[in-house]
Amino acid sequence: MHKTRNDIPAKTRKKVVELLNARLVDAIDLSMQAKQAHWNVKGPNFIALHELFDKVAEHAEENVDALAERITALGGTAIGTVRAVASRSTLKAYPENIFTGPQHLEALAGALAAAAKTSREAIEIADDLDDEVTADLFNEITAGLDKDLWFVEAHLQ
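RE: above sequence
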């Protein structure tokens, strides 16, 4: 941990940084999964899905930045390397052999739901650690993930 004048106790900041880094690798993974879908989708609804998947990736990238910035504001080090993401992400590996819209929608819906679940759990953990700012960040991220999931699932219903 780096020195900071932040008044959250160092022990608490360390736990919050660990929580944030765990969700950071998931957010990076989600952004790349959405890009995988964006680049490779085929089929009759190509343009709509291509644009939707790009929006999901854009939102995930915004979450990546917000999480990393909170980590460093607390005196931590944001861990977002490709190797860290590959070894630490809690999301299922994205299938590399899918191409149709429905296949990508199913895969991305699963990733969004999983990311939202762990983000929702992080709200409670941050609250328990008395870090309302981090809890608020996770509330905002979770709301966005839920909205993206709604948009993706709407194509499956």
